């Protein structure tokens, strides 16, 4: 294998945006993904919809993230951004996961980005804080690869942890991570019956003002959920949460199950995934028997992997805090904007803790939160930037992960081009390049 200017580890939405951005800046790029698809949890765990591309005031994610949505719309893989019927955020962006895989592969092909599936970065060699070589486990043997700059878009910072960066587990306590969720796609759902039930029982749902039901997004059936216990499932939840599959009116993504655990521990991950797999059939029986509109619902697909919300947080040069978000703090070195509120799934109860960001509902991500302490040539990208537990529960969603990915890719390319340390990249130059590529600051 040749050496590369930039090696991106992880092919989720953040990793793809980093790889494309770096390549468009003219450097050579290799992307490594341990699974067999691009998109990370958006494709492998059936997470849907993307939210949110808008604050109450304006669009806050653009550039490659918007290009992905435009490409999806073109091939009937998304309706684009639509008003959130639940009213939690300004807009949501539902999409068809198989079409997202197609769009992301096509983007890498068009940009001539080299990428490899089935490649787990299993070890990272460093000298005086500089990553000198990485070891990649493939099915038969381990290979060594060299890059000048590395981008950790693994979702949980496992590249940086292998390189020796400091980190904390969960909320400084591995028992207090947000729970995992196995998402399933169901067919033969009666949309008309569900809408009619919502319209006659609005107090049983969280709804936007004058909701538009042309697209079905539901958070509720609160009283019905009290009967879940009778069905011997291993999770607790106070509501059903589901979203219509675009262009398939009788299908929904059901995002409701919850399993506690520290997913970086293989024993806890296995327990959560096994419980979730075993619960599917009892949960389906509950839906068929108890929920209006689900009498004939059938299981169509289950995420290849349980969705992992939270494991560890890398300590960066700057750790973004909940105070920064709630005070809508200005950072000179801002590189991305988020607008998703705090949405903390409780590890031990059935509920949610949500906190709205004061108007205009936006917060800034500083470049320094992408620099893992003690490492000279590694950038964090996506949901694994340095943030405390509560700030993380806001910044963790996909449009912002994509915007951070864009910035990480450009920053890496500038460092290569100018042959400088990542910390010597001038944030003004980076901000200029972000805007030139259509990013929003
Ligand atoms: C249950 C659940 C529900 C969610 N709901 C929503 C929602 O409704 N809307 C929304 O916008 N967001 C939601 N999110 C959050 C959001 O989807 C993700 O946080 C976001 O997509 C993160 O993107 P990412 O690229 O940073 O990471 P990921 O999507 O996690 O991608 C990381 C990639 O890195 C790969 N990888 C990891 N380690 C290695 C390694 N060592 N070597 C090689 N490859 C590696 C992984 O296989 C993966 O493909 C949800 C998340 C979960 C889990």
List keywords for this structure.
binds flavin-adenine dinucleotide; 441 residues; 5-stranded parallel sheet; globular; 2 domains
Give an overview of the whole structure:
The protein is of the alpha+beta class and 441 residues long. It folds into two domains: 4-171 and 311-436, 3-Layer(bba) Sandwich (FAD/NAD(P)-binding domain), CATH 3.50.50.60; 179-302, no CATH class. Helices cover 29% and strands 22% of the residues. The strands form seven sheets. It has a five-stranded parallel beta sheet. A five-stranded antiparallel beta sheet has the order 12-13-14-11-15. Strands 6-7-8 form a three-stranded antiparallel beta sheet. Helix 1 (13-24) runs parallel beside helix 4, helix 1 (13-24) runs parallel beside helix 11 (398-417) and helix 11 (398-417) crosses helix 12. The longest helix has 25 residues, at 266-290. The model has no long low-confidence stretch (mean pLDDT 96). Flavin-adenine dinucleotide (FAD) is lined by residues 9-15, 32-35, 40-42, 45, 47, 50-51, 120-121, 153-155, 158-159, 181, 255, 307-309, 382-383, 396-398, 401. Keywords: 4Fe-4S, Iron, Iron-sulfur, Metal-binding, Oxidoreductase. GO terms for molecular function: 4 iron, 4 sulfur cluster binding; metal ion binding; oxidoreductase activity. This is FAD dependent oxidoreductase.
